[in-house]
Amino acid sequence: MKNQTAKWVLGHKITTHGTSGDFDLMLAETPAHIQVPPPHFHNNFKESFLIIDGEMEFLVNGEVKIVKAGESLDIPPKTLHTFSNNSNLPCKWINIHSPKGFKGFFDAVGIPAEIENAREKSHTPEIVQKVIATAEAFDMNIKVQ
To answer: Where's the Cupin type-2 domain (predicted)?
Structure first.
């Protein structure tokens, strides 16, 4: 399938891929030292991460997990989580949400990759507020501390 869209979302370059199954599929590239998204959980979505290059630090229900290239992590519904690339190298990873429906979040808040300075524009205070306002419509429940 050649149904791909690349956008910058909160500092991550997200390329969504159309699927015929009941899941959303994306490839992401996270530059070094990116600290997002805010801690959140999904009531209905199951989420899986597969690290292709580099490593990602996850916080899952208060427990820190470092996931390296070739490793994966499953996040069941109602599991509080966030992640960041705290390393000095970029990280490339695959993300799956099941059932289908979370792709719309990336479409709603992402900055098209071809726009100048899209990465920087993807995490301005205005975009962060848009994420907070939009998240619940996509079953992303942000935990405010």
So the answer is: 36-96
90: Cβ contacts below 8 Å, ≥ 6 apart: 29, 30, 31, 32, 53, 54
- Name the residue among 6, 19, 8, 16 with its Cα closest to residue 119: 8
The domains of the chain are located at 4-142
**What does the block give as tokens for 80?**
């509080």
pLDDT digits (tens, 9 = 90+) for 85-103: 999 999 999 999 999 999 9
Amino acid letter, 36: V
Residues 107-139: tens digit of each pLDDT: 999 999 999 999 999 999 999 999 999 999 999
Q: Which secondary structure element, helix H or strand E, spans residue 15, and what is its range?
A: strand 12-17
**Is the pTM above the cut of 0.85?**
yes
Cα torsion 62, 49, 93, 95: sign: negative
Rounded to an integer, what distance in angstroms lies between the CA atom of residue 125 and that of residue 5? 24
Provide the percentage of residues in the chain whose pLDDT is more than 90.
Answer: 89
Rounded Cα distance between 76 and 44, Å, is 9
The pLDDT, as a whole number, for residue 104 is 93
